[in-house]
Amino acid sequence: MEFVSGYRDEFLDFAALLFGWFRKFVAERGAVGTSPEGRWQQLEAQIRRLPQDPALWVLHVLPNRSVGISLGQGAEPGPGSGLGAARLLGDEPPLHLRDLSAYVSFVSLEEGEEEEEEEENGEEEGAGTKKVETEEAGEAAPTSRESPREANPPGELEEAKQEAGGGKDGCQEDRAEDEAGPERRKGRRSEAAPLHLSCLLLVTDEHGTILGIDLLMDGAQGTAGRGSGTENLAPRAYALLCHSMACPMGSGDPRKPRQLTVGDAQLHRELENLVPRLGVKLAKTPMRTWGPRPGFTFASLRARTCHVCHKHSFEVKLTPCPQCGAVLYCGEACLRADWKRCPDDVSHRFWCPRLAAFMERAGELATLPFTYTAEVTSETFNKEAFLASRGLTRGYWTQLSMLIPGPGTPRHPRGPTPSLSLLLSGDPYQLLQGDGPALMPPVPLDPPRSLFGSWQAYYMWRGLGLDSPMAVLLTYPLTVYYVITHLVPQSFPELNIQNKQSLKIHVVEAGKEFDLVMVFWELLVLLPHVALELQFVGDGLPPESDQQHFTLQRDGPEGSVRPSSGVSARLSSGMKEKGGRRDLQIKVSSRPYHLLQGPKPDLVIGFNSGFGLKDTWLSSLPRLQSLRVPAFFTESSEYGCVMDDQTMAVATGGGTSPPQPNPFRSPFRLRAADNCMPWYCNAFIFHLVYKPPQGGGTRPAPGPAPPASTPAAPPDPARRRRGEKKPGRGSRRRR
């Protein structure tokens, strides 16, 4: 049994859901179009019998004139490390958004301009994913050789056959070119103009839940400037509406709206005679103007899938295991298949009672002092709406969001030395700021008089209100603080770490933590008399950042650049030091940890590590075993801690300490696709237990003692434990 929730990037889960639905829509649109006219009548009759949704539905027509997408060489099919459709749909190991930057770039289609725009923009890379998927699917949106009228109009069978592959041109022509081989594809791609998404058809309800999508694609720049892209869209829009009702993408069972409004006047007129055939009332007039009202966001989509067959929730009805309530299945067949997996220790039969114990920790993990706790720990937590309603749409907050910032929105600067301009400006908290008043109050004049062991105690001293969301970003420095002040003295008292005036800490397999590097400035506030050196190590760090380092100093606003040793920035914290100035040095090593050379650190820390998800851990853990340095790691779930313990046993013969909840975990509940377990960033902490130097031998891969005897037969899906509540629809993540 394997889950990857808490590690995979949310935008890739969103892409998997989006294009899983889109491919199904394209296939069924072709099937309907190539069938006799009675097939349309049958589909319309089926939709007329659906229950009514009281919410208003909206058909958005969103033309695009100026931005195209250029696919890099890595996006090509064939030999090499291409970005295949299977990877986008989640059949391969987890991707990160930065993996897409080598394949996708954005270009201007304005006359006389073809300049690349932010390749490293995480959300925009995800938009580029749409192009990769539709090209490789072979039967996605039409190219410039097709007109919108050829897109499966009801009753116009010849054009529909062309798009479905039954004719002599259209997509069949695309397939013929694709079959010519990678060399021909590569040559064609390099000579062709950027791809252009001329128009996007989007079906949502009034709350912003996405119910269906269709992409109208052009293949050349010359077509980018034509009209609104809404000519002859009625048949295509009608097919999209039918599929959105019979198979809604966002959530819920098949249903039809009581009323529909259309965002284009011409398309509204063309649909007047079609939409009533579905038993849906069309608004009297089109939606004249539409723009997002303040605080509006499209509701977060939850990529719920069966743990075994990976079918999405719009394809099948998913229910959790009736015994543990942790794992989602589409039916009894998949439950039984998972129950009987071999070897036994990967079967659900082995894990079911253990997962039930993990589920019982949900209430404890959701016990946090914040005023918004109930919202952010709910299974139905809409993170995008939470961030947008508080103006958290720029700076480091974009690292947490799937929203695509509009033109001119300040972005998180990237480069070999992160946020260099902000370092020299003397404002370490600028990237932590939202659109409203300052989120971080001035640094208290007096240093802490006691050690903090909870968010509530830290917030009170720091002057933060319990309605502040800063804990979501500060979980990283506060976790480091908690390890230094609480966990190391408990587990390694002989080190006397609290009396040290300088500490060298390695942050291993760093990635996201380095992208949020300025949050670690808070360590200077919490540990004012300790000189800290944080060295971020990992092969996922930007190669150009290798061997870079810079220093954050408290006194004086001036800054300087020293090419030989990196960047030195003097930042004022507003407090005078009594015991001399202490600095925070940041170093970067873009390589696996076992290849790192240099002095032995005082402490090693890793965030949301996932030992079993990356092969380099099988070399890095033995390196830590040889160093025998205190090493603490966090995980986003208790399940992850068990898997890390097993990986440590295989790699070194050692193990890990019993995991304990991290009081400084992030309050945001993470999504999961194929399970209902509670996942939180930095939820649990443990340290490595090294094998004795001599005669210790190895031990078998450990696992937690089962809280109950392992059942002999799979539970009856129709029965549920007494008093157990039916799980609600919530945020899911999967491999």
Gyration radius over CA: 27 Å
The average pLDDT is 74
In percent, how much strand structure appears in the residues? Answer: 5-15%
The overall strand count is 23
- What's the end-to-end separation, in Å? 12 Å
Low-confidence regions: 73-103, 111-192, 220-229, 406-419, 556-580, 720-735
How many DSSP helices?
21
Derived structural class: alpha/beta
Largest sheet: 11 strands, mixed
Per the principal axes of the C-alpha atoms, what is the gross shape?
globular
Helix content: 25-40%
GO molecular function, one term: histone deacetylase binding
Biased composition (Polar residues): 562-571
Keywords: Metal-binding, Zinc, Zinc-finger
InterPro entries: Mss51-like_C, ZMY15, Znf_MYND
Structural commentary:
With 735 residues, the chain is of the alpha/beta class. Helices cover 28% and strands 14% of the residues. The chain contains 21 helices and 23 strands. The strands form four sheets. Strands 13, 14, 15, 16, 17, 18, 19, 20, 21, 22 and 23 form an eleven-stranded mixed beta sheet that branches. Strands 2, 3, 4, 5, 6, 7, 9 and 10 form an eight-stranded mixed beta sheet that branches. A hairpin with a 4-residue loop joins strand 6 and strand 7. Helix 1 runs parallel beside helix 4 (122-137) and helix 1 packs across helix 5 (157-164). The longest helix is centred in the N-terminal third of the chain and has 24 residues, at 10-33. The protein is globular, with a radius of gyration of 27 Å. Residues 73-103, 111-192, 220-229, 406-419, 556-580 and 720-735 have low confidence and may be disordered.
